[in-house]
């Protein structure tokens, strides 16, 4: 194993350890309420069974992974055991798997099967807890309806396309995971306290990406001081592209900052929040992504909408932020030809996407059909200079092109409903509204339509708002 892969593996085990520790702390916080429900003898029996189960899991994982995965063995044993206690831990464990993606580095059959196994575990735990509480229903709200309508519409668009085989494979391997996770989150979490494991995982998983990206960009990819200055941000796995990883950082910044701000480290919480803001903003800058920089500006704009009451001050902040963002564009280290080519490609693909929707107003060109159909819809057959990444470069344009106007309306309706819910809790939980606005702007220049991250964000925003409303009732 080379040096970088070893570093990524060590990083995985360290950050998974933080998740396991965080879940244990949250479990102890729940302990008083648990003790009130059962007798001391029942508690002793329950804890004894959990310990036996956890130790059995530890032995099983260690037998498969050996010393190289000893920390994984401990962490997964703890997390699987806690998953049996409450659905919030089961969904948190699944979420960490899907965001951290350790199987990309730790090449092992058992690790590779973990996403499927964790999904089954989460479904069984949620079903079991609902049965115990006699909750014979699935939580449903306008957001759920809009997501299911969008997912069904996109399925139909692929099913009736001329590339149905490719569409169905991509639909089942990529998009459907986000839909399932959206529904699992809404049905696993009931109170605001239940959101804590999910938000903890959300922050830790993306900070892990920051850590790995920083290391790869400044120590592996760059071989000199000049390279370190000019090197664009890089990462690993499905988010290796600098624009994609920067957009995920934009999504995470509000959650990381508010997590630092709400800690008990006072009066140093503001310092911790400021440090994380500077570090993550630096990483966004290193991506040299104009969309991500606009998303960063949108985050501060959203914060101003939430916190600043004076319209004059807010207007000055927005104008000042826009000027700084445009100034940042001028300071980019990217080659002028690269920027011009990127801009012309985006305009070309957006025009082609609009053309696809106009000429196919019902289902567009079908799910996952943009690259294949692009040559037939661009002016003069010019497909631009991106031979390997021919996509719409906009989550909204991609939905419009591949699913038609109805798909775009459903997707925008889902985002709008989530934004309204996030706005309703903006005073106590401003990070949701900030993330929706910032990430929404960033993915206007990236094809994140079918990735996990939007649906995680939208689901926890709606779920937290509903939990807060129920607590006030």
Walk me through what this model shows.
By secondary structure, this protein is mainly α. The protein has helices at 3-37, 40-65, 70-83, 87-100, 109-112, 114-132, 142-159, 164-188, 195-221, 225-230, 242-261, 269-287, 290-307, 311-330, 336-359, 370-377, 395-424, 430-442, 452-472.
List its traits.
globular, 473 residues, mainly alpha
Q: How would a crystallographer describe the biggest sheet?
A: none
Broad shape: globular
Total E-strand runs: 0
Runs in which pLDDT lies below 50 for 5 or more consecutive residues are none
Count of individual helical segments: 19
Could you outline the blueprint of secondary structure elements for this entry?
Elements (H helix, E strand, L loop, with lengths): L2 H35 L2 H26 L4 H14 L3 H14 L8 H4 L1 H19 L9 H18 L4 H25 L6 H27 L3 H6 L11 H20 L7 H19 L2 H18 L3 H20 L5 H24 L10 H8 L17 H30 L5 H13 L9 H21 L1
Helix pairs in contact: 1-3, 1-9, 2-3, 3-4, 4-6, 4-8, 4-9, 7-8, 7-17, 8-19, 9-11, 11-12, 11-13, 11-18, 13-14, 13-18, 15-16, 15-17, 17-18, 17-19, 18-19
How would you summarize what this structure contains?
With 473 residues, the protein is mostly helical.
């Amino acid at each position: 194993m080379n040096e970088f892969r070893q570093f990524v593996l060590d990083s995985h085990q360290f950050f998974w350890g933080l998740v396991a520790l965080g879940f244990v702390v949250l479990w102890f916080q729940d302990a008083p309420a648990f003790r009130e429900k059962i007798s001391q003898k029942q508690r002793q029996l329950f804890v004894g069974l959990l310990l036996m189960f956890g130790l059995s899991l530890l032995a099983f994982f260690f037998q498969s992974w050996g010393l190289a995965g000893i920390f994984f063995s401990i962490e997964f044993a703890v997390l699987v055991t806690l998953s049996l206690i409450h659905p919030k831990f089961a969904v948190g464990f699944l979420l960490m798997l899907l965001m951290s993606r350790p199987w990309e580095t730790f090449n092992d059959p058992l690790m590779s099967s973990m996403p499927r196994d964790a999904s089954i575990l989460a479904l069984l735990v949620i079903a079991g807890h609902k049965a115990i509480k006699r909750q014979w229903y699935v939580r449903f709200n306008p957001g759920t309806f809009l997501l299911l309508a969008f997912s069904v519409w996109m399925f139909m668009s692929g099913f009736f396309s001329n590339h149905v085989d490719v569409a169905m494979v991509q639909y089942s391997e990529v998009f459907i995971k986000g839909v399932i996770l959206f529904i699992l989150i809404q049905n696993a979490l009931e109170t605001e306290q239940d959101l804590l494991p999910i938000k903890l995982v959300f922050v830790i998983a993306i900070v892990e990406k920051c850590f790995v990206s920083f290391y790869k960009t400044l120590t592996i990819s760059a071989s000199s001081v000049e390279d370190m200055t000019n090197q664009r941000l890089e990462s690993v796995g499905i988010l290796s592209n600098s624009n994609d990883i920067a957009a995920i950082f934009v999504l995470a910044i509000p959650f990381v900052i508010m997590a630092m701000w709400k800690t008990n480290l006072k009066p140093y919480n503001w310092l911790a929040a400021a440090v994380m803001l500077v570090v993550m903003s630096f990483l966004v800058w290193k991506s040299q992504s104009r969309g991500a920089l606009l998303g960063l500006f949108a985050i501060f704009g959203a914060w101003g909408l939430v916190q600043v009451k004076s319209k004059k001050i807010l207007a000055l902040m927005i104008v000042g932020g826009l000027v700084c963002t445009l100034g940042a564009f001028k300071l980019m280290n990217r080659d002028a030809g690269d920027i011009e080519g990127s801009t012309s490609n985006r305009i070309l693909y957006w025009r082609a996407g609009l053309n696809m929707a106009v000429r196919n107003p019902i289902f567009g060109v079908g799910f996952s059909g943009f690259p294949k159909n692009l040559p037939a819809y661009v002016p003069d057959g010019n497909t631009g200079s991106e031979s390997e990444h021919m996509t719409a470069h906009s989550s909204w344009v991609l939905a419009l092109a591949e699913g038609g106007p109805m798909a775009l309306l459903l997707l925008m309706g889902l985002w709008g409903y989530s934004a309204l819910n996030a706005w309703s809790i903006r005073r106590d939980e401003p990070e949701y509204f900030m993330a929706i606005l910032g990430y929404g702007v960033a993915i206007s220049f990236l094809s994140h339509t079918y990735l996990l991250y939007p649906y995680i964000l939208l689901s926890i925003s709606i779920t937290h708002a509903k939990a807060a409303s129920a607590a006030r009732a």
